[in-house]
Amino acid sequence: MKVILLETIKGTGKKDEVIDAKDGFAMNYLIPNKKAVVANAENMAKLNIKNEKIQKKKKEDKENSKKIAEKLKSITINIKVKSGEDGKLFGTVTSKDIEESLLKQENIKIDKKRIILKEKIKLEGIYFAKAKLEEGVEAKIKINVEGE
């Protein structure tokens, strides 16, 4: 019996996946526990509409990410940190600091988990970080670290 899963079930399939389940498993477990619905024409149409919306959203997100990547190419983020006389910082500049500076200075929201630093920033100077925005879209962030 063909069913559409309403949630991910380990060993069976992922959410919104159409699977061929055994009749007893589908009728006695999946459907009564609202873990799946019968894959009839009406439910398949609903699934197709849902998938189209998801694809459209992914495409819009990718286009927005490309715009953000273009903007990031032309800007430099300034971060002021307390430092000693020799240019060593008290602490390090982290991806969270970069996230906050991007939001304050350029009104660009990028999650700190998507900002990758090659090395720890412990000295004043100019550094580059990589931002993974969407699947296949990456951008370089230029960071100017100044001491106070």
Per DSSP E runs of 2 or more residues, the count of β-strands stands at 9
What's the oligomerization state? Answer: single chain
Fraction of residues in helices? 25-40%
Mean pLDDT over the residues? 92
Secondary-structure-derived class: alpha+beta
Count of DSSP H/I helices: 3
Integer-rounded radius of gyration? 24 Å
Fold blueprint:
Elements: E1 2-5, E2 18-20, H1 23-30, E3 36-38, H2 41-73, E4 76-81, E5 88-93, H3 95-106, E6 115-117, E7 121-123, E8 125-134, E9 137-147
Parallel strand pairs: 4-9
Antiparallel strand pairs: 1-2, 1-3, 5-7, 6-8, 8-9
What features would you describe in this structure?
With 148 residues, this protein is α+β, with helices and mostly antiparallel strands. 36% of the residues lie in helices and 33% in strands. It has helices spanning 23-30, 41-73, 95-106, and strands spanning 2-5, 18-20, 36-38, 76-81, 88-93, 115-117, 121-123, 125-134, 137-147. Strands 4-9-8-6 form a four-stranded mixed β-sheet. It has a three-stranded antiparallel β-sheet with strand order 2-1-3, with helices on one face. It has a two-stranded antiparallel ribbon with strand order 5-7. Strand 8 and strand 9 form a beta hairpin. The longest helix is centred in the middle third of the chain and has 33 residues, at 41-73. The termini are far apart. The model has no long low-confidence stretch (mean pLDDT 92).
